[in-house]
Specification:
Layout: H1 5-22, E1 33-36, E2 44-48, E3 57-61, E4 65-66, H2 72-81, E5 90-91, E6 96-99, E7 104-112, E8 118-126, E9 132-140, H3 143-170, E10 188-189, E11 196-203, E12 209-217, E13 222-225, E14 234-237, E15 239-240, E16 247-248, E17 263-268, E18 274-281, E19 286-295, H4 302-317, E20 334-346, E21 349-360, E22 364-367, H5 378-384, E23 389-395, E24 398-403, E25 406-412, E26 415-418, E27 429-438, E28 443-453, E29 458-470, E30 478-484, E31 487-494, E32 497-504, E33 512-518, E34 521-526, E35 531-535, E36 537-538, E37 544-547, E38 550-553
Amino acid sequence: MRLPFPRCLPAAAGLFAALLCAGVSAQQVPAGWVHLPDPAPGTSSFAPAQLSANEHLAVNFYPRTTLDDQPIDRWLADAAGRDAPPPGGAWTGALKVSAQTANTATASRSYRDSSGSAGFVLYMALTVDKVYGRMGRWHASSEELASRHKAAASALMAQLAATEMSSAKAERRGIAVEAGPPKVDGVKPGGPFAAGRYVGNLLTSKGEVLRKIEVLLFANGEYLIPAKYKLDEKKGRYLYEPATGKLNVTDILYNSRYDEGDFCVYGRDAQGAPVIYAQDEYGVGTHSVMLRRVGDVGQLPPTQAAAAEKAAQDEAKRYKYVTEPGRGIPAQEIETIVYSWRLVYEGAGSRMDYEAYLLLKDGTAHDGVPVPPQDMDLSLSRRREPEKWGRWRKEGNGYAFAWPDKPQEWKKVQGGAMQPGQRGMTLQGEWTASSSSSVPMGTSTWSRWGVKLQSDGRFEKSQAGGMYAAGAPGTEVVTSTTYDNDGAVTSTSAPGVAIGVQRKNSNQGNKSGRYEIDGYAITLRYDNGMVERQPFFIDGSRKSIWFDGSMLTR
């Protein structure tokens, strides 16, 4: 079914915005409509008086509730997301929500009634004080029925703004309605946004060209200003209001006032082509730019490009000489795994660096244990990375190695042999590692990470740390940050001034789950569904374990 939403609701949205600004207070029931008995306190319902038995159409206004600091579109998504389909119907499509202005939002959803007819529900939400939100709902059991009553239903929906404006004034809640941008000759503001590459010249008040400006605006709400025309590369997210044309691109087209001197507006020119006009009044003159769409962006949005680059880097780092789990090197061919350590000093701090070596009974050794030995393709590894394969021998209570670049030079390492875990075994305790660094009269950092393994087969990773930074001598400015699994706290202090910021982390199930030990491998099944298999080995006292590519102790 083709919803009438694109055709009839924008007209209502326009009237809606006008009523917000005008403050009209009268609510009128359209001719031929009736005010139905209110189903709940604060709820008003209206419908055409003459409907056949199989026709269903109504407009409902619901009580206002607090926004809880949410933008109006998110508030509407929550409110409409909890809505039930019309009686006897079932939802057939996802809820689609769109922010129209900072004060208004719209949404739509399709449904099918018990007779099989395709209907729709349209929602409109507004806030006149940015504290409370109120929702209107219009449903119709068919497109033909909606078209027949669209003028009356749209006008009725738009009256929600008038009643809210009147209530806010009467209750002294205050009015916080953002005005749209000023009128620009030759630009029809608002409407659907056309992502793409926009180019234009930044002009002075005298029409002189200061520089060329290019902005890439992506369909997902991101923007990119390329590093050209004497500008550094900048990226972020833009905000657009289709009802007014108001557009904010923070780094170059941003303004917060939207008055006669500073504003940015998107729309269409006389030929219907997408344009962006922005101007900035800076005291002695005005800079302005008219950007025109010259083509598609031709590349991924910044966040997607960064994700693709990270995926490529992760793939390049991924150890590729593997078999199916458990089909690699047999346990009877493995002598042991040896770890080595060295203490590294960083300023006044230090950290322990660990390495691990896989020793086979044939006298060969692999530099590193990138995957569980039982998952390593031995023959492929020997062919593709021969530089990683050397020889080992016992020297006293320790081990020495000779590598292909210096085959006659044997070096003993500081460390010892580790043991595999028994299949199905569990451990109880917490194993951690830490590091620190410090620069006199400068920055100090510390970090601690680890894992808690429980006898019931559960695990939980942990991380914590902090940073302390003193300002330049004589400034008495101090900044400190501490973090852990729950979030971070940053504070900055100076004589007579103290500022603190706290950020809480949500539990995304990526730190805990269940574990399974099998020889030199541990499988982690995270609570978010991710599964990870990595090398794992322990010392004889179980005071140290190899986990996440490093040695942890308790």
